[in-house]
Amino acid sequence: MRSLIPVAPSECVDPAKFVLEAISEVFPVDKRREKNNNDLGWGYVLVLESLIPVLVDPVIGKLRLLVTPTVKEKAKEIAETWKTSLEERGRIENVKTPDVHTFLQHLVTFGIVKEEDADLYRKLVVSSAWPKQMPKLAVSIGLGDKMLELISRGQQLDAVHFTYKAGLVNKFLPVPLLKAFLKDARKVAASILEDPNNASQAAHLVARKEQSALQSVIKCIEEYKLRAEFPP
Questions:
Q1: How far apart are the first and last CA of the chain?
Q2: Tell me: the pLDDT tens digits for 135-164?
Q3: Where is mean pLDDT largest: 57-66, 85-94, 209-218?
Q4: What phi and psi values does residue 61 have, to the nearest 5 degrees?
Q5: How far apart are CA 179 and CA 214, in angstroms?
Q6: pTM (2 decimals)?
Q7: Contact, 89 vs 51, CB < 8 A?
């Protein structure tokens, strides 16, 4: 199915309208009577991503999207509905990452990013930074420089992924970020050992924390070929 989804919009008379109707059952608000545990968020994001090359003007390019005024207005209404639904879900931190991803991709796909909503976008990106596609979305909506907030929140690993995906490696060096991440992990481990409430299982918790941190850093080193920066 994953291979068939990107093809569907290109075979439609009105691909933009088709995509809006295709995802309307769950976005901007999930209207399904019976919900299962299968997360289909990836499918809706893939549909929205596959629509972009179909909408690009063959002459002018991405500066002009081939979307009718009616469909674009509908896309704006959907975005506003999703924003309104945030109040029902509680704080931004409570919104599921797939929902955030779909919303931001919706904005980019239909070219309806609003400057006055930049603060909302920033909060959404920072709270859901881990998907690999998020850095490119952040750059597309004008938030490529928001990694400083990730760093200040102790999300150095997310910041490293952002640097590479957003093409900002020269501005935010990955090695110091990874070293800072390990340093913070050691501080957390030390605080666990000092907590009398953890006396019975402190050693086990510390070992798990440190192992998890090291595995995450090793994965980054291998993914971005940084082995030379970390001599044995």
A1: 44
A2: 778 888 887 766 667 776 778 888 888 888
A3: 209-218
A4: 95, -150
A5: 10
A6: 0.72
A7: no
